[in-house]
Amino acid sequence: QVHLVESGGGLVQAGGSLRLSCAASERTFSNYRMGWFRQAPGKERDFVAAINWDVGNTYYADSVKGRFTISRDNANTMYLQMNNLKPEDTAIYYCAAARRWTAQLMRNIGAAYDYWGQGTQVAVSS
């Protein structure tokens, strides 16, 4: 069982920046891919970004390309640097880990991931 803990959320004005962190309870070399999803009030959970842990390939939703950057360290922490934040970025942000490659990962859907954190709130004021 992998435990994921997010941190770094908060309230920021439009145009500001936040950096989210996701710490895993074990070394993440055992995970194939880790990702960030978000869920706004009354909406479905959406894919934000993902990274393949071994080679570092990254994937982004069109809505965040050029503004968000996903990265990881060499141990067990993943990051999401969020710049030029917009009110529509307001949501609970969740990190997730997929232990192995599946075809579902190509669709960037939540069902492809095995473990989830509890989420961290991001609020962007206009």
What would your notes on this structure say?
The chain is an all-beta fold. Helices cover 0% and strands 48% of the residues. It has no helices and eleven strands. It has strands at residues 4-7, 10-13, 18-24, 33-39, 45-52, 58-60, 68-72, 77-82, 91-98, 115-116, 120-125. The strands form two sheets. Strands 2, 4, 5, 6, 9, 10 and 11 form a seven-stranded mixed beta sheet that branches. A four-stranded antiparallel beta sheet has the order 1-3-8-7, with no helix packed on it. A hairpin with a 4-residue loop joins strand 7 and strand 8. The radius of gyration is 13 Å and the shape is globular. The mean pLDDT is 93.
Architecture blueprint of SSEs:
Blueprint: E1 4-7, E2 10-13, E3 18-24, E4 33-39, E5 45-52, E6 58-60, E7 68-72, E8 77-82, E9 91-98, E10 115-116, E11 120-125
Parallel strand pairs: 2-11
Antiparallel strand pairs: 1-3, 3-8, 4-5, 4-9, 5-6, 7-8, 9-10, 9-11
Short description:
It is built from no helices and 11 strands.
Shape: globular
Regions with pLDDT < 50 over 5+ consecutive residues? none
From the alpha carbons, calculate the radius of gyration and give it in angstroms. 13 Å
* Fraction of residues in helix: under 10%
Largest sheet: 7 strands, mixed
The counted number of beta strands is 11
- Give the overall average pLDDT: 93
Secondary-structure element pattern, one letter each? EEEEEEEEEEE
Count of runs of 4 or more consecutive helical residues = 0
- What fraction strand? over 45%
* Coarse structural class: mainly beta
